[in-house]
Design brief:
This protein has 771 residues and is α+β, with helices and mostly antiparallel strands. Among the domains are: 255-500, no CATH class; 521-613, no CATH class; 620-736, no CATH class.
Length: 771
């Protein structure tokens, strides 16, 4: 399996320094998050708790920052940035194969058959295609789930509490990696565990009690390991996030599901097309940058196993896992999704049900392995017949698709959409036409692979081949089948192709005074791009920023603009608003030169024009006036008025008793501008508010001359500190979320307990072994 992994990533491994694996999310946000994490971790000697470069500032832990708390991130302190990013993915592709091998062994497969299962899962396009998207968290969970299943099965079989303990560790790591996929995994593991206990209920009460106790150990351990992410994120999602609330409705949760086209692509990967290295995707989602394909032989043999594994009750559990996961992944296309959406707690908070497909791939891979084991190793005649019939049916079905595609051409599109629907009214027929050749070739390849596998089984049944030879042939056929799909999603690019040295950005960063930020408009730079160079942005690339910042900037209006006119109207209103001035947006970058009252052109080239927002507040300022406005909609309306002056008046929700009517004026200078700390020297003539152009959060704490004072939410989404008297003051602000500290202690204590118990268990085992 190591050889397969090296073969798969050979282009990257043979590339020179400065190369990286292409990953869309990696380029959009991953680079920035990891650079921020590593550089500031080294500078501070601890986790940076606040990221000031996006959306006026976002909490690092609570809002999520990629995989920075996942153990593999240790590679970032050992390897260069791009190497660490690549090796995290490469290692998890390899581990996926190892864990599937162990899971297959736990289900009773021989070493050679388990090697087939491990190789198939390692190369599964459902896993490997995520490389192109840069979706490392999804890859981690997809790799870890077979490990969790292996630990669960062996813990029940061997009555091992230590295995239950490590099942909890793996389950906790899945949450740290990707909570949504982890939730799907938990549901599958829970159902499998309950079904296993019920199937063995004749073993007696002691067995059931041990199983239930072990399950509780796993649950508690998982909660402890995941606490560092789970507790802060849970509170954040309930109170602070744009996603806070009961959910966004059925249509939102059903979006980005599989459709009939993608379902067929589980058997013939080219069927629905792709938008990677081509524009051939003609399905119902906006675009397609991944594949759910797990291999033709895995798909065919997994289905055949349901009939072929007669007497093995495990087939029903695995078949149910595969079937329910696929029906759920199909979204509103089946009643199963609506039922689970209505009944299962938590599912209303998720979208993209297609992400559950990995559970089906795991189940089908294990079913295929069990059928091969029964047919070839155990020599079961019924299993062999099911295997032969399944492979023959697969070959015929794929050949039929190839013939129909070649015969009908684009006419197949009309036939297909007449049956399953065409929401775009034929708008994707051009993509289908571009895909016809690929589809026919892909179907023919699948037909040949199924036929070759059938032939190997046939010759074995005639004593022309050994069973071990057939398993090796099936493994090689599966590897060839999957690698041809995987390589489309593994691209090696140069880091400086996407993040080149840019003198313009360096000059801009040199101009910025601490606390100021930059607004980019019109795609001059991708959102979040400047942040990767250490330039604070008004917006950025995140998706889980604080919701009151969204309110202040009317971000949903901008994202929901349906026409160019609507978007231009948003930008014009925002550029003239008091809100933008309050955000300390000193510089605005545009793709061309325009006449903007209140803005001064500083320079321009063929790509970008740089404007100075002359009325923008500095990062900190003394504001004499206070306006109390408890109604949020009226606050935002006022802040979007061009006539409101945030330099003279700060809007607050309720009276600030410490300063009364205020009225003092003065100056403020940032002396220390840390990520999650701020030190300001202030001179004021009387009571006033120190306006801070960072996004408000209740975990910001402030001291004025060493005395704790409240941090006030100002101008709806920003912060202010009350200055009660005149004279010179030193203001210190720190972001110190209590829940993060508590959660970190819980996770640290859990890890310590797990390691201690494991060590004690190993010592006791050695003592018993020695007599």
């Amino acid at each position: 399996m190591a050889a397969l992994t090296l073969l798969l990533f050979r282009e990257y491994l043979l590339s020179g320094p400065g190369s990286m694996l292409m990953g869309q999310d990696t380029i959009a946000a991953g680079i920035m998050f990891r650079k921020f994490f590593v550089e500031h971790m080294r500078a501070l000697g601890r986790l940076p708790l606040w990221n000031p470069y996006l959306f006026g500032g976002v909490p690092t832990i609570e809002a999520g920052s990629g995989d920075i708390l996942y153990p593999a991130s240790i590679l970032h302190f050992i390897l260069p940035l791009t190497s660490a990013l690549a090796w995290k993915l490469i290692l998890h592709v390899y581990l996926a194969g190892v864990f599937m091998y162990l899971a297959a062994r736990a289900f009773g497969a021989s070493r050679l058959v388990a090697l087939f299962a491990g190789s198939a899962y390692l190369l599964s396009a459902n896993l490997v295609s995520l490389v192109w998207g840069g979706q490392d968290g999804k890859m981690y969970v997809t790799a870890l789930f077979p490990a969790a299943l292996w630990l669960l099965v062996t813990a029940l079989d061997r009555h091992s509490w230590v295995r239950f303990l490590w099942l909890g560790v793996v389950a906790g790591l899945m949450v740290v990696a990707h909570p949504q996929l982890a939730y799907y995994a938990y549901l599958a593991l829970a159902v499998y565990a309950i079904a296993s206990l019920w199937a063995r209920r004749q073993a007696g009460g002691a067995f059931l009690a041990n199983g239930l106790a072990g399950g509780m150990i796993a649950v508690v351990t998982a909660a402890g390991v995941a606490a560092v992410v789970l507790l802060p994120m849970y509170r954040y999602l309930r109170e602070d996030s744009p996603r806070a609330g009961p959910g966004r409705g059925f249509e939102y949760s059903a979006s980005w599901s599989l459709h009939a086209e993608e379902a067929v692509s589980l058997f013939i990967p080219e069927f629905s097309g792709t938008d990677v290295q081509s524009q051939t995707y003609w399905g119902k989602n906006p675009f397609k940058h991944n594949s759910e394909y797990g291999g033709a032989l895995v798909f065919v043999l997994g289905i055949a196993a349901v009939a072929g594994l007669r007497g093995d009750r495990r087939r029903w559990g695995l078949a149910a896992m595969a079937g329910i996961a696929l029906l759920y992944a199909l979204g509103s296309g089946t009643p199963v999704f609506r039922l689970l959406y209505s009944v299962v707690p938590g599912l209303k908070n998720f979208r993209a049900p297609s992400l559950a497909t990995y559970l089906a791939i795991v189940a089908l891979t294990l079913l295929a392995a069990l059928l091969i084991q029964r047919a070839l190793v155990a020599g079961d005649l019924h299993a062999r017949r099911a295997m032969s019939v399944g492979l023959a049916a697969g070959a015929v079905a794929a050949l039929l698709v190839a013939v129909l595609t070649l015969a009908a051409g684009t006419g197949l599109y009309g036939t297909w959409t007449a049956i399953v629907g065409d929401p775009e009214g034929g708008g994707r027929i051009d993509a289908f036409a571009s895909n016809v050749g690929r589809l026919a070739a892909g179907a023919l390849i699948v037909a040949l692979i199924c036929a070759a596998a059938w032939g190997a089984v046939f010759f074995w049944s005639r004593d022309k081949l050994r069973a071990s030879h057939v398993v090796i042939i099936l493994t090689l056929l599966t590897a060839i089948d999957l690698i041809r799909v995987d390589l489309r999603y593994i691209q090696v690019v140069r880091y400086d192709e996407f993040f080149p040295p840019d003198p313009g950005i360096e000059a801009l960063r040199a101009r910025l005074v601490p606390g100021e930020r930059v607004l980019t408009i019109g795609g001059v730079y991708p959102e979040g791009f400047l942040a990767s160079y250490g330039v604070p942005e008004v917006f950025g690339y995140h998706g889980n920023q604080l919701r009151w910042y969204n309110d202040l900037t009317r971000y949903p209006v901008r994202q929901g603009a349906r026409t160019t006119t609507e978007l231009e109207q948003y930008w014009l209103s925002f550029l003239n608003s008091a809100a933008l001035r309050a955000l300390a947006a000193r510089y605005v970058l545009l793709p061309g030169q325009v006449d903007l009252p209140g803005y001064r052109l500083l320079g321009a080239d063929q790509r970008v024009s740089v404007y100075l927002n002359e009325a923008a507040l500095p990062g900190v300022s003394v504001v004499p006036g206070i306006q109390v406005e408890p109604d949020s909609s009226r606050r935002i309306t006022t802040l979007w008025s061009p006539t409101f002056d945030p330099a003279k008046t700060t809007i607050v929700e309720e009276p600030v008793l410490a300063v009364g009517q205020a009225g003092g004026t003065g100056t403020a200078v940032i002396e220390g501008n840390g990520d999650d700390t701020l030190a300001v020297r202030v001179r004021s003539t009387g009571p006033a508010l120190l306006h801070v152009s960072r996004t408000y959060h209740r975990s910001w704490k402030a001291e004025v001359d060493g005395v704790p004072v409240p941090v006030i939410r100002a101008n709806h989404a920003l912060m202010a500190v009350p200055l009660a008297g005149s004279g010179e003051h030193r203001v210190i602000m720190r972001y110190r979320p209590t829940i993060v500290r508590m959660a970190t202690m819980i996770s640290a204590a859990t890890w310590a307990a797990v390691l201690l118990i494991t060590l004690l268990g190993a010592v006791l085992h050695l003592r018993r072994a020695r007599g």
